[in-house]
Inverse folding.
């Protein structure tokens, strides 16, 4: 662990001692620590007053503390970008399947017991006299060694059907196997249509988590084989999608992330753009509506339908310039750019688009609206057209620098191409 994080954990242990309570790190953080997977999302569980511990920790380390009295939880944000979630140990009672849990105070064992899988039900004690001791009531460490995803109790999937999707996500992420009894319970829950008890919003959240994994493709096929896919996207037949293109998506996305680090994209949307290409516009609308997707997501998904026409132009025009590409591609989301590259098979054109994407942000104009106004150009929609055209000329290397930009404007004024006062 980075020393900052290690010291923070030790500090939390000391505070717990002072407060006369017990504190533990829990969940994914412990799992990943044992597996030597980088994960700095720390979750703490406190047997006692979690909020008091969070406040003291924030004070000691100069961090910000946000408290949710109602849930007896707090978040401590530290300078290095670390975020520590602090919870008070509790038991959750589920009133009926798939309902939101009710909260009651209890011990760390109860807290572990309500968790999804043994590998996520591990805790590390932080109190000084026991610092680093592993609390493993359910054989999580053994399951990590044997690479199993295993539920803690038979009703786990019934109480929380999102766990079916979580099981698949963890299984594929770590190349584990869903343990046979667990798999049986999952399939049983699916056959009893328990996913139908979840809101679409919760299903979408889980699906997004799967699609945002480094390589979600095997998880999609696993979803199909276990019988989940047909409940989520009955419209989309996975076997009809081109497998080679599908497998290229994660490669393309990681290329994008290394090329354009300052322009993060929503990977899940690129997968959806690809999947939705296999269904009709009407079916797409039904799906988007069903999942109540937000506006930006809808826009990005819809944009993909325009890509085929743009590709035809790019592939057919022999001498296509960056300025021309700008005209074709401006305004589209980066996800759509990825989707376009995924479907662009001409290597030279690929390189052209790649160079255009690299250069378009650098090719900033040096003049702005004020300069246009000073030249007497009447403000209005023509400002955007003028700036767009200048930007294209700049991308093509026809003009370079403020002087050229002003000269070009003067030329257009003389030609009467722009309206002046
Ligand atoms: N959890 C659970 N059931 C769920 C969701 C979460 O039992 N439906 C528990 C698990 O113990 C999990 C912890 O809550 O470890 C935190 O959940 P989350 O942050 O979603 O998972 P992580 O394990 O941290 O996974 P990731 O690495 O994907 O962040």
């Amino acid at each position: 662990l980075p020393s900052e994080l290690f010291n923070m954990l030790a500090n939390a242990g000391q505070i717990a001692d002072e407060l006369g309570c017990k504190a533990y790190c829990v969940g994914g953080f412990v799992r990943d620590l044992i597996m030597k997977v980088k994960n700095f999302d720390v979750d703490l569980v406190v047997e006692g007053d979690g909020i008091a511990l969070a406040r003291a920790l924030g004070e000691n380390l100069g961090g910000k503390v946000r408290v949710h009295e109602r849930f007896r939880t707090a978040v401590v944000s530290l300078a290095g970008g670390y975020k520590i979630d602090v919870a008070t140990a509790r038991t959750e009672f589920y009133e009926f399947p798939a309902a939101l849990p009710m909260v009651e105070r209890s011990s760390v064992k109860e807290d572990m017991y309500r968790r999804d899988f043994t590998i996520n039900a591990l805790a590390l004690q932080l109190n000084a006299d026991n610092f680093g001791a592993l609390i493993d009531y359910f054989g999580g460490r053994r399951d990590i060694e044997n690479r199993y995803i295993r539920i803690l109790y038979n009703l786990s999937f019934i109480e929380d059907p999102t766990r079916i999707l979580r099981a698949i996500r963890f299984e594929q992420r770590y190349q584990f196997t869903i343990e046979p009894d667990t798999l049986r319970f999952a399939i049983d829950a699916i056959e009893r249509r328990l996913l139908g008890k979840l809101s679409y919003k919760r299903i979408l959240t889980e699906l997004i988590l799967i699609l945002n994994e480094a390589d979600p493709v095997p998880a999609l096929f696993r979803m199909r084989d276990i019988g989940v896919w047909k409940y989520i996207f009955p419209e989309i037949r996975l076997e009809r999608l081109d497998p080679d293109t599908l497998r290229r998506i994660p490669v393309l996305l990681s290329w994008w992330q290394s090329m354009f680090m300052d322009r993060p994209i929503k990977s899940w949307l690129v997968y959806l753009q690809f999947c939705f290409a296999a269904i009709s516009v009407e079916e797409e609308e039904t799906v988007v509506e069903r999942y109540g997707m937000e506006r930006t997501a809808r826009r990005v998904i819809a944009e993909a339908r325009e890509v085929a026409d743009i590709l035809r132009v790019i592939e057919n025009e022999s001498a296509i310039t960056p300025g021309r590409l700008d005209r074709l591609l401006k305004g589209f989301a980066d996800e759509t750019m990825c989707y376009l590259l995924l479907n662009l098979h001409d290597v030279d054109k690929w390189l052209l688009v790649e160079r255009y994407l690299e250069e378009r942000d650098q090719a900033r104009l040096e003049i702005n609206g004020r300069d246009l106004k000073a030249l007497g150009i009447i403000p209005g929609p023509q400002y955007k057209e003028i700036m767009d055209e200048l930007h294209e000329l700049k991308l093509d290397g026809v003009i370079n620098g403020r002087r050229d930009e002003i000269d070009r404007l003067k030329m257009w004024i003389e030609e009467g191409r722009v309206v002046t006062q």
The radius of gyration is 27 Å. Residues 73 and 87 are 4 Å apart (CA to CA). The mean pLDDT is 92. The longest helix spans residues 295-316.
